[in-house]
Amino acid sequence: MTSTLNPYIGFKDDARQALEFYRDVFGGELRLSTFGEFGQADQPGADGIMHGQLETPQGFTLMASDTPPHMEYREGSRISVSLSGDGEELRGFWDRLSEGGTVSVPLSQQPWGDEFGMCTDRFGVDWMVNIAGDHSGDAAQG
């Protein structure tokens, strides 16, 4: 897998509707995961989108999520930059991006099997880094 850089749009509570709209506009395959699917089923906002990803026939990747109830939604900061892939290259990017910035989610193993972290760099740009885990046993999950 090579590294990719994608726009990641944050919504207050309408990521599902927005991503379905973008699927209607661009076509493609839409995958949605809710907060409830990842251990927050009994929490407020469990039906919210933790991660949505649209892969279009043109090769575009658009990602989005709802803001969890425990996090502040900042109007005007709807877009983050998402780096995805595997290996040490992304860990190096993470180290350099987070240096002098603010880490909101430390780069660590997540329930979906990948390493993930979120930070705001020293210039105020929000970054998400997702390093692919070993999903060899996930063939049934698609």
Could you describe the 3D structure shown?
It is built from 2 helices and 8 strands, in the order E-H-E-E-E-E-H-E-E-E. The chain is an alpha+beta fold and 142 residues long. Helix content is 16%, strand content 38%. It has helices at residues 15-26, 88-98; strands spanning 4-11, 29-34, 49-55, 61-66, 79-85, 102-109, 115-120, 126-131. The chain has a single domain, classed as 2,3-Dihydroxybiphenyl 1,2-Dioxygenase, domain 1, CATH 3.10.180. Strands 2-3-4-1-5-8-7-6 form an 8-stranded mixed β-sheet, covered by helices on one side. The model has no long low-confidence stretch (mean pLDDT 85).
CATH architecture: Roll
The top-level CATH class is: Alpha Beta
Bulk shape:
globular
The CATH topology name reads 2,3-Dihydroxybiphenyl 1,2-Dioxygenase, domain 1
Domain count? 1
Given as residue ranges, the uncertain stretches (5+ residues, pLDDT < 50) are none
Helices and strands, in order, run as EHEEEEHEEE
What does the radius of gyration come to? Answer: 15 Å
Helix content: 10-25%
SSE class: alpha+beta
Neighbour order of strands in the largest sheet: 2-3-4-1-5-8-7-6
If you average the pLDDT, what whole number results? 85
Could you give the distance between the termini?
A: 17 Å
Number of helical segments with 4 or more residues: 2
Strand content: 35-45%
Q: How many beta strands in the DSSP annotation?
A: 8
Give the biggest beta sheet.
Answer: 8 strands, mixed
| CATH H-level superfamily title | 2,3-Dihydroxybiphenyl 1,2-Dioxygenase, domain 1
